Predict the structure.
Amino acid sequence: MKKPLGPNYWKLWSASAVSNLGDGVAVIAYPWLASLITRDGFKLGLVVLAGRLPWLLFSLPAGVLADRFDRRRLVVVMDLFRAILTAGVVALVLANTGVLDIAAETGVTPSNEAFLLAALIGASFLFGVAEVVRDNTAQTLMPALVERDLLETANGRLWAAELLMNQSVGPPLGGVLIGFALVAPFVLHSATFAISALVLATLVGTFRTPVQADAPRPAFRKDLAEGFRYLWSHPLLRPLAITLGVVNGLTMMAQTTFVLFAQDVLALSAAQFGLLTTSGAVGGVAGALAASKVTKRLRRGATLYLAMVVFGVTQLIIGLFPDAILAWTMMVIGIFFAMVWNVITVSLRQRIIPDRLLGRVNSVYRFFGWGMMSLGAILGGALVSISGPIVGREWSLRLPFVVAGVVQIAMLLYAYPHFNTGRIEEAERRSETEGLPA
């Protein structure tokens, strides 16, 4: 008889599903809004950079906050903040509906482009700060909600729901809502955060570590340094974090101008662009549900190596053979293995990192994994802008996929000797018997 995941878990699952529906709508709405404000690849890159830069600047402090304060309350506050911030974007769109409608019809950027761009960059940055604190803290909640041997199942089901909403239901809905009214997807986005906060506020239990309750707080810098030292001295977590950082940075380099690639190379409408992004749900849900079976058949180390090869090959094919159906297929395959990678590595971290350090070490890991997206975003926009006059508009938009694919495959040379199934199992054994890093 299978163990139940429990009511607390399903509250987290429900809140994540609702908020990710809004995020899926935003996947279409925000890039589309940015493309109405400017058609310049570098400027679009700045908008993406603003949203990703907080992962570089605030990942480490966010981990200290997660280990110092009530984790449930921290997640709820961040969701409420994002609801209010998105309501501000609603007001911005409503105040500029006329000029944005003209930009949509003519393709000419608004006369107040600088103001709108600055406002969108500012909102993206603040949204990113809240996202860093919220997502890092939410990931530390899972070990307090389910038993250790249920982590893969719990994470897989959670991400399956998130991806279904984020990349299957949300994007097509976002395209439809844009066609109805540009402001509509942002209204929905704000509402989903408010609902998520209300649901998470009902979680029952204690979500503070024993250290939070029983020990005096050390200096903030000392807390942060302890988490960094733990990861950097860990022979398994360090190479995993570095590898993830490079892969994510290269992926973001390709994705930064993806909306322009879809518009100018694939010639897709907003609704068609939304359908293209459903690849994330198809591949992600399949990957989340199949992760445990794949890893049992191939073992975890081999699965991680295979995923890295797939990441590079799929990016190369999208860049070299631009076709909407082929791109959708490659994205399905790539995201399938990305989700398998996530189930393996996140469950591993939740299992082997001591609870009192989980927020900080997790934040250091995500500092590498997500912080590099900031660099990838600015490189992607710059690559398109610089290469455009040399290779032409189409190839400048295809080039980020080609470069990302080649370097991702080459990263296997670094990863191969550093993490394998034997090291993963040894880290888990030592965590169970000693509670110390491997």
About this structure: The chain is about 85% helix and 0% strand. The chain has a mean pLDDT of 83. The chain has one domain: 7-206+219-433.
